Amino acid sequence: MKLRPLYFKKDALWLLDQRLLPGRLKYTACRDHAAVARAIKNMIVRGAPAIGCAAAYGYYLASVEKEFGSVERMMEYLRRAAILLNAARPTAVNLKWAVTRMSDAAAAASAALRDFSVGATLVSRVRRSLLSEADRILRRDEAMNRKIGALGARLILKKSNILTHCNAGALATSAYGTALGIIRSAFRAGKIKKVFVDETRPYLQGARLTAWELSREKIPHALITDNMAGHFMARGEVDAVVVGADSIASNGDTANKIGTYSLAVLAAHHGIPFYVAAPSSTIDASLKNGAGIPIEERSSDEVTRICGCRIAPAGTKALHPAFDVTPSGLITAVITEKGVFRKPFDFGQKNK
Ligand code: MRU
After folding, report:
1. To which H or E segment does residue 286 belong?
2. Total number of domains in the chain
3. Is residue 114 over pLDDT 80?
């Protein structure tokens, strides 16, 4: 069965609660934009593209939360909703991208429909265009992932052992995944021998989510703790590293789950190709390089505890940057739905 981390039905956004996986498969309903913002912050939904899709529906929900006598009042409310949604997680660029697309859609629809309707009628027409826009964002995300999968699979050699970090799979997107999309496509093409799944401390997205996705599809894999990657690379057992991204600057510097940078350094040392897979909506053209990418700091409890159980002495202070930045020099190629980009990265052009 197709894995869907989110869908919109009966006036609510339904999110697969990823905090409970792999133990429980439970969808939770968000009926207003504040609930969507909380779900993003609390990691019920996670992964940059999935966060973007959720935020788009959150924005639509804001438009139906109140009566609003006029479209101006609705636009003012949406402006505040956008601020709340954007603040939910700072590193995932797809969040801001989706919210901007929704606010552009609201402005365009109200300008285009103003001559034909006023008041409550105009408000309800703008709402309809917002729901269509959120649906479009969701549908396009899956199409982009399938394209990324097909393009990326061509780079994978036969009988490859691939190492991946965190979860950039169906759960992190609308469906299919980015890094895992490449692995899925390469597996279908008969190219995958085994996937090394980094556990991904501290939140364990690899152990809990990626291993679960791969087992559902019977893709051979082995779970390793993050500090084992160098050992397997040194033994010649890793043929390529494929990861996702939360933000890519114009020069190719890439923010992804904490630990990605160390993997890239190790891969470069061992001469192993290091691939980043992401939709073009993850590229932040306003950033010259990775120095400007905001890095989310999460609670130290996520480090001192595992699944709620304390593993460090009481009172121990922990640091928890949730992402790190891999300099573009360490990246072999960035695969988006538009093509395969290599150094020097120029995302304005198709660079196959
Ligand atoms: O903190 P998370 O679980 O949201 O982090 C997710 C990642 O780092 C992913 O690799 C990234 O968002 C790409 S998902 C296609």
Report:
1. none
2. 2
3. no
Question: What's the confidence (pLDDT) of residue 352?
Answer: 39
Q: Which of 17, 42, 44, 46 to mutate to test the pocket of ligand 1 (most atoms within 8 A of CB)?
A: 46
Distance 243 CA to ligand 1 centre (A): 9
Q: Is 115 a catalytic residue?
A: no
Integer Cα distance of 252 and 332 in angstroms: 10
What the block records as the tokens of 330 is 């360490």
- Cα-to-centroid distance, 244 and ligand 1 (Å): 7
Evaluate: CB of 46 within 6 angstroms of ligand 1.
Answer: yes
Instruction: Please work out whether the CB of residue 168 comes within 6 Å of at least one atom of ligand 1.
Output: yes
Domain endpoint, select from 102, 128, 147: 147
d(CA 99, CA 29): 20
Please tell me the pTM assigned to this model. Answer: 0.96
- Given a cut of 60, whether residue 349 has pLDDT beyond it is no
Return d(Cα 111, Cα 261) in angstroms, integer.
45
What is the band of 121 on the pLDDT scale with cuts at 50, 70, 90?
confident
Residue 205 near ligand 1, beta carbon < 6 Å: yes
Closest to 161 in 3D by CA, of 273, 277, 263 = 273
Name the residue range of residue 299's domain: 151-351
Shared domain for 218 and 193, answered yes or no, is: yes
pLDDT higher than 90, residue 249: yes
Tell me how far the alpha carbon of residue 105 is from its chain's centroid.
Answer: 22
